[in-house]
Design goal:
Structural class: alpha/beta
Helix content: 25-40%
Order of helices and strands: EEEHEHEEEEHEHEHEHEHHHEHH
Number of helices: 11
Strand content: 15-25%
CATH class: Alpha Beta
CATH topology: TIM Barrel
Radius of gyration: 19 Å
Number of domains: 1
CATH superfamily: NADP-dependent oxidoreductase domain
Strand order of the largest sheet: 3-4-5-9-10-11-12-13
Shape: globular
Distance between the termini: 31 Å
Low-confidence stretches: none
CATH architecture: Alpha-Beta Barrel
C-alpha cells in the first residue's frame, strides 16, 4: 500500500481508501452487517488505513458499523473521513436546499442540503457518537448548500479544528469558484469529486487547480458503482431497489463492454482482476491523492487493497488511454 499526504495537512491517507457508501445499505439493495464489518477488518488487515463514510449512508448505519468494526483497534493508525450537510431527519425544519427523495423500507424520505453552523456542530456530535471516537480526521461538506454562505460553513469547521474535534476540513463536489471562496476563510485540505475512466471532466479544471494549489483530490465512483468490474456484463441481475438500474443507463454499455474486453488481457497478464486494473490506473492519474473503493465483503476489500500491487508501464497506460478514446 502507498500512503499520500493530503494537500497542505499532515494527514497521510492510504491511496486506496475504504469507501463505505454501499455498506450503509440504502440505495444499494440492503446490506449484511457481518459482511460489512468483515470488509472493514479485511481492509485494515491489508494496509488500508483510511475509511470514508457519511451520516447519510444508511441514515447513520454506515458510521455505526465502522465504529463497531474499529473498536479495540489502535485509533492513531486509522483515519476516519466523514461528512455533513445532508439532512433527512427533519431537524432542519424546512431550512436548506431540497436535494431529492430517498427511500427506506418503502418510506419516502426528503433529503436536504444544509450547511449552517448550527447544523454542522449538531451533525459532528452525532457522527462522533456513532463512530465511537473523540475526533474525526477529515470532515467534509457532502454537497454545496446554496442557502448557506460558504464563509459560515468554513468558520464552523475552523471552530471544530480549534476544538480538536476534527483534524482537517474538506469539501465534496465543489467547483473551483467555490473552492476559492472557501479558501478565503479556511484553507481546505481537499475536494472529494466523482472521477473514473468514464467520467474525466475534472481533468479540465480541478486537476490543474489542485496541482497548482497543493490541494488534495479524493475521488469517488472510480469503478462507476461496479460497472467497470465487468461483472455486470456477465451477471446483470440487480435487485429492483438497486439505484444502479437507472445509473448505468447514462453509459453506452456496448462501448463500455468493448473497452473492458480490450484491456482485460493486461489484467490477466498481471494476474489481476479488471477492478484492480481500473483502480490502479486511477491512482496513477495526475493530482489524484486518494481513490475510494467500495467493498461489501472481505473478498472485495482484499481485492481493492491488492490493486496497489500492480505495476503499469507507460506503454500500458498509453494503451488504456487510447482504448478509452473510443468510448
Amino acid at each position: 500500500m502507498e500512503y499520500r499526504k493530503l494537500g497542505n495537512t499532515e494527514l497521510e491517507l492510504s491511496t486506496i481508501t475504504h469507501g463505505a457508501f454501499a455498506i450503509g445499505g440504502n440505495m444499494w439493495g440492503g446490506n449484511e452487517k457481518q459482511d460489512s464489518i468483515n470488509s472493514i477488518h479485511a481492509s485494515l488487515d491489508h494496509g488500508v488505513t483510511s475509511i470514508d463514510t457519511a451520516p447519510f449512508y444508511g441514515f447513520g448505519l454506515s458510521e455505526e458499523m465502522i465504529g463497531e468494526a474499529i473498536k479495540g483497534k489502535d485509533r492513531s493508525k486509522i483515519q476516519l473521513l466523514t461528512k455533513f450537510g445532508l439532512v433527512w431527519d427533519g431537524s432542519n425544519n424546512g431550512k436548506g436546499e431540497f436535494f431529492f427523495d430517498a427511500e427506506d423500507d418503502g418510506k419516502v424520505i426528503p433529503v436536504y442540503k444544509f450547511a449552517s453552523k448550527e447544523n454542522i456542530i449538531k451533525e459532528v456530535e452525532e457522527s462522533l457518537q456513532r463512530l465511537d471516537t473523540d475526533y474525526i480526521d477529515l470532515l467534509q461538506l457532502h454537497w454545496p448548500d446554496n442557502t448557506t454562505a460558504i464563509c459560515e460553513t468554513m468558520e464552523a469547521m475552523e471552530l471544530l479544528i480549534q476544538q480538536g474535534k476534527i483534524r482537517a476540513a474538506g469539501v465534496s463536489n465543489y467547483s473551483i469558484e467555490q473552492m476559492e471562496e472557501a479558501n478565503r476563510t479556511l484553507k481546505l485540505a481537499s475536494n472529494q469529486v466523482s472521477y473514473s475512466m468514464l467520467n474525466r471532466t475534472i481533468e479540465n479544471d480541478l486537476v490543474p487547480y489542485s496541482l497548482e494549489n497543493n490541494s488534495g483530490l479524493i475521488v469517488y465512483s472510480p469503478m462507476e458503482r461496479g460497472l467497470l468490474t465487468g461483472k455486470y456484463f456477465k451477471d446483470n441481475k440487480l435487485k429492483d431497489n438497486d439505484h444502479r438500474n437507472g445509473y448505468f443507463s447514462q453509459f453506452d454499455l456496448n462501448k463500455v463492454k468493448a473497452f473492458l474486453e480490450k484491456i482485460e488481457p493486461i489484467a490477466q497478464e498481471k494476474g489481476a482482476s479488471l477492478s484492480q486494473l481500473v483502480l490502479r490506473w486511477t491512482t496513477l492519474q495526475p493530482a489524484i491523492t486518494v481513490v475510494l473503493a467500495g467493498a461489501r465483503n472481505a473478498e472485495q476489500a482484499i481485492d481493492n487493497a491488492k490493486a496497489m500491487n500492480i505495476n503499469l508501464s507507460q506503454e500500458e497506460l498509453s494503451f488504456i488511454n487510447t482504448a478509452l478514446s473510443d468510448i
